[in-house]
Amino acid sequence: MTERATSESLKADVAIIGGGIVGASAALFLRRSGLSVVLLERNLCGAAASGVNYGGVRTQGRAIAQLPLSLRARSLWARLPELIGIDGEYVPSGHLKLARSQADLHKLETYRDAVAEHGLDLQITSGSAFRRAHPWLGEQAIAGSFCAGDGHANPRLVSPAFARAAQAAGARVIEGCDVTELVHTGGAFIVGDGRSVTVRSRWLLNCAGAWALNVARRFGDDAPMTSIHPGMAVTEAVPRFMDLNIGVEGGGIYGRQTARGNCVMGGARGVANGALYGVPTARSIAELCDRMAALFPALAHAHVIRFWSGVEGSLPDHHPVIGPSPTTPQLIHAFGFCGAGFQIGPAVGEALAELVHHGRSSVALDAFSITRFHTASSSSSTQGAH
Amino acid sequence: MIVGAGPAGMRAAEQLVAAGQRPVVVDEGARHGGQIYRQPPVVMRRERRDLYGFEAGRASAVLDRFDDLRSQIDYRARTLVWQIEANTLQLLHAGRNHGMHFDALILATGATDRVLPFPGWTLPGVYTLGAAQVALKFQGCLIGPRVVFAGTGPLLYLVAWQYASHGGQVAAVLDTASASAKWLAAPRLLARPAVAMKGAYFVARLRMMGVPLHGGVTLIRAEGADRVTALAWRSGGTSHTTECDAIGFGHGLRSETQLADMARCAFDYDPIDQAWLPTQDSAGRTSVPGVYLAGDGAGILGADAAELSGARAALAALEDLGIAPAEPQGAKRIERALHAHATFRRGLETAFAPPERWAADAPDELIVCRCEEITAGELRACARETGAREMNRLKALTRIGMGRCQGRMCAPAASRLLAHAAGCELHEVGRLRGQAPIKPIPIVMLHDRAPSTIVPEDQDD
Amino acid sequence: MPLLYRIESAPRERIAFELDGRACTALEGDTVLTAILTQASALRRAEFSGAPRAGLCLMGACQDCWVQLADGERLRACTTFVEPGMRVRTGAGG
Questions:
Q1: pLDDT digits over B54-63, tens only?
Q2: CATH fold of the domain at C14-89
Q3: C48 — contact with chain A (CB < 8 Å)?
């Protein structure tokens, strides 16, 4: 997919900056509705947050405003092979969110009641019934809220596959293209890397992830996005003991076991490693290991093979920015997923395609408008995400 | 702090002590010596001449010197550095983890064999040349009574001769490099005439012992059901099968660079080592202030050069810290001596170049990543079907390098396969990005640290 | 049939340990790898294929020689010295 043409001048209905799961799925859905697309990715598609996240395909725990998108995404995940040609190791394993105290349990119950009327069905077990059902969980787990429609997948496979599917559908995907030229003039966008690629398009989608403000600000849009670096660990393969995707109320650890037996765990915190990467801190690694050992006694003798992190754009209200720019017509933003973009990614891509093609999306996006923050680039509360 | 207690680490420590410092030397091994001068457990009471042959004098000099300085060194044996963060190393020893701050860090992490595998290499009884040597030196064992040695590199002949001299039956020595390559290299090899002569001596002795020596060999397959029983190979158009109880193989050495990577040193592709190495100036300074390199962990030059570069790196660290060294002209003297080693090294790479046809010849069913059991065919299919032409992308899609060894054994082979499949040069496929821990660590560790509060993470995708 | 072949060395203390339920002896100074492979031909079964493995590098780099003890503990056989009473499980049938 990497294109290294001597010099190219391209025209398309839509230019997309950012080849993660959001940009790539948008490219795919745009092609399916017959529009021409050029996708520009600085590095390799699906190699940033979209490719290194935990792999949770999860609706439970999301704020109510995200449920319509998330439930819409479920139907897309269910037909993943048809969309991207591979199963991406997607397993509808269910998500069990644990309570470690009565206060936790109360929160789970409150959430269950709140989301019931929004189409999310959660089953809570506690007490001896819970312990009997999950004897492999550490004693601190006293109850759990189970969401049957959730699951997990392998982001390293899924995200690049969306880009390949978009390309197979006729999108022009250009990797290794660091967009520096960004202009809106005479009803068209001119975007390019200032060297070998220039694209002229009617629409521009800003799907540049944690670095999306670099694009937004060029058009006078802004948001108080910061970078976070969730830290992960993966163990050696151990005999299978866990079929569910596990999270805890209050955060700090989440985990799943792959078909091969490795346990993928998250909950550590990292710091930036240059502009493009993240790395977990030693202290947070140590804390995560302690929590792993406590919650999963079967891992008592297991070894961690690898820790890693990435770069996620985070917004203070824990919702992404999705929607049209208030300053620039035909510019649409979709970024800042706060570490929870993997599951809803395909639905966001579909919504972006609908916005372009029909002028509106079937799922309401008002809660995610960038206008909920100051939009002037002179906003004092912004902090660049690099 | 110094990581590694081989010749580089030991000489670095010596220089620091001479300048009045008390260095911390962190060593994964049980005793100092590294691999080349690996010392067996004390109870085995082996003679130095028996262990190190021609190198006994050099080995004794550096091992004994370190012993003499022990009281002035904070030596941490059986300790793994598994992560580096800012100026702190994470040390794991006997199940206990703690962080240690450094003002200067000298990485003397040494090397392993470069592995270009052949089908059947995962069978019990197939070991690297380095392993064959460790078995003999460190445990007083042969990897088998009847051994075939294969691959290329000076180590091939050295280990074969060591086995033959210790009562092992060497069934054959199979060099994938050709005789003509050695002639081409001859001028550069004369940069270190004593070493070149030793090599010739090993070859002559093996011949006199009646060991079959072959060059220009292509390794085909290790045969056997649950353990190796023979090695099939080809030379000059003729196929052969040599029966054996064990195989020792390797194609030169490969620097252990994970800690340099973790310390955020810049890397560059080195065409002599055909590997990505952390960059360094002539004194061993890396791109990161306060971090230095020494020995084979930063490019293969051998044990004698390692002693020199270890001392040189220590002198650079002292200079940068504003501490006067014991001998003011030491640095210049060392850099001059290192020059001959670099020339010799280029000669070795010409004489013992890894087989260029290795990737083209590798059959699809060859297991390349033995940790995750990924075959050459799977790697090729990925390159073909996804257009992958970069190592981290290949890793993400095929799991190569995701196993316990984190690419140590499979990266040279996988890189060559990817470059061949993608139709590009070896350096163009890049290198696997290193991540902590550099070796598997237990989840359950005791920690010496203060607990902190959990920051709730309500996103867990 | 064992893989590793001892050559002459100074006499050493014997160390009693258990290999796949069988009482065995090794010598003081043996690594777990040496202790096992001087009387058996495999350390473990590979996780995904079940094929027998006996290590590769003997210097703690390849990570091929991890073995399990009866109590579930895991250790790297080439860098761990055998201790009296160790109960090693290879799952490889000797």
A1: 999 999 999 9
A2: Ubiquitin-like (UB roll) (3.10.20)
A3: yes
